[in-house]
From TrEMBL:
Renumbered ranges of ANK repeats: 15-47, 48-80, 82-114, 115-147, 148-165
Protein name: Uncharacterized protein
PANTHER family associated with the record: ANKYRIN REPEAT AND PROTEIN KINASE DOMAIN-CONTAINING PROTEIN, ANKYRIN REPEAT-CONTAINING PROTEIN-RELATED
InterPro entries reported for this sequence: Ankyrin_rpt, Ankyrin_rpt-contain_sf
Domain of life: Eukaryota
Gene3D superfamilies with a match to the protein in the record: Ankyrin repeat-containing domain (1.25.40.20)
Xref: Pfam families: Ank_2 (PF12796)
Source organism (scientific name): Arcella intermedia
Length: 165
């Protein structure tokens, strides 16, 4: 009903979130679809660089991720504070299906955060074996280290993930 009266679909709240970002966070796929029909800006980010795609990946909303990508969401957007991208968030949270989608869409597999953590390193640190296998099959660089010099192998050993070692 509100959209019939032409509200500002890209209006940003005090916390930096747009209606689209809020719907993505809450997992409201139908509302996301409606907002996209009304030309919500799929790449509009908050002050820290977090956009709807990063939110949907972090929260594990696979169908919303697909919708956003269909509407040209920037797959390689990087947050401003820590330097995470959609693939990093998905690996960190263990969202295997979303990782697969992002890799199929050519997400940059070796992009590191500001601390030097890559999607492979964070997957090893959190014991996400299936994601580690998927990343390696897509040629993730096994030799990249974070700023403290830790490799994916170091993280798997440190956290006791013998199935990854």
């Amino acid at each position: 009903m509100l959209l019939k009266y032409d509200p500002q679909v890209n209006l940003v709240k005090n916390n930096g979130l747009t209606p689209l970002a809020i719907a993505c966070k809450q997992g409201h796929k139908e509302i996301v679809e409606i907002l996209l029909e009304y030309n919500s800006n799929v790449n509009l980010a908050d002050k820290s660089g977090i956009n709807p795609l990063l939110i949907a990946c972090h929260c594990g909303h696979e169908e919303i991720v697909k919708l956003l990508l269909l509407h040209n969401a920037d797959i390689n957007t990087i947050s401003k504070i820590k330097g995470e991208n959609a693939l990093y968030y998905s690996c960190w949270k263990g969202h295997h299906a979303i990782v697969q989608i992002l890799l199929e869409e050519n997400s940059n597999i070796n992009t590191a955060t500001n601390s030097g953590a890559t999607p492979l390193l964070i997957s090893c640190a959190h014991g996400h074996k299936e994601i580690v296998e998927l990343l390696l099959k897509h040629n993730a660089n096994l030799y990249l280290t974070n700023k403290k010099g830790s490799s994916p192998l170091h993280k798997a050993c440190q956290r006791g993930h013998k199935e990854i070692v």
